[in-house]
Amino acid sequence: MEALPELYAIFQGEVATVTEYGAFIKIPGCRKQGLVHRTHMSSCRVDKPSEIVDVGDKVWVKLIGKEMKDEKLKLSLSMKVVNQGTGKDLDPNNVSLDQDERKKCTFRDYTSQKITLEAVLNTVCKKCGCKGHFAKECFMQPGGTKYTLIPEEEEEEVVAAGHGRDKKTSVAEDSSKKRKK
Q1: Using CA atoms in the order 69, 20, 61, 29, what is the torsion angle rounded to 10 degrees?
Q2: A single Gene Ontology molecular function, please (predicted)?
């Protein structure tokens, strides 16, 4: 068994291969190679790893992960947390690495469902009897004008179909209601 560097150890390695997703680095003192993924090459976005490194270049890397997969040891390396001039650790407490891991685990809602505020829209004011607001938000004066919500287009179509009127008539009436307000 070869002596591998410990986790979070920094060393200088030689670039063995450059691929579209990163670069493989020869680890000194053993025959293993580790991968520097393109996301760990620089703090800036890297689209082509070949623009950053070439085969044979000496680079400073930090061992950030060891993983057994299909009975093979896979090593993950990072260049962005090491100063490439001096080899100094730019992330001694591994805070940046933890943040990168958290970014990968964020929840995203891809269902694209509309959010509706039915709880408020379906309420009836105790003061004026209109839908869509609470009594404490009511602006009705005793004997004054009553205000209601303007129905959405879908509701207008249902109302128009139910009363045998066409949509243009109901839209014209709604616009006259808006002017009264």
Answers
A1: 60
A2: RNA binding
pLDDT digits (tens, 9 = 90+) for 110-143: 666 666 656 666 778 877 777 777 777 776 656 5
User: d(Cα 4, Cα 30) in Å, to the nearest integer?
Assistant: 7
**CATH architecture, domain 9-104:** Beta Barrel (2.40)
| CA dist., res. 128 & res. 137, Å (int) | 11
Burial label for 133, CB within 10 Å (0-12, 13-18, 19+), is: buried
Give the tokens for residue 13.
């390695």
Question: 0.70 exceeded by the pTM?
Answer: no
What does the alpha-carbon distance between residue 82 and residue 99 come to, in Å, rounded to a whole number?
16
**What phi and psi, each to the nearest 5 degrees, are found at residue 99?**
-65, -40
Residues in Cβ contact with 29 at an 8 Å cutoff, skipping those fewer than 6 apart: 2, 3
d(Cα 143, Cα 152) in Å, to the nearest integer? 28
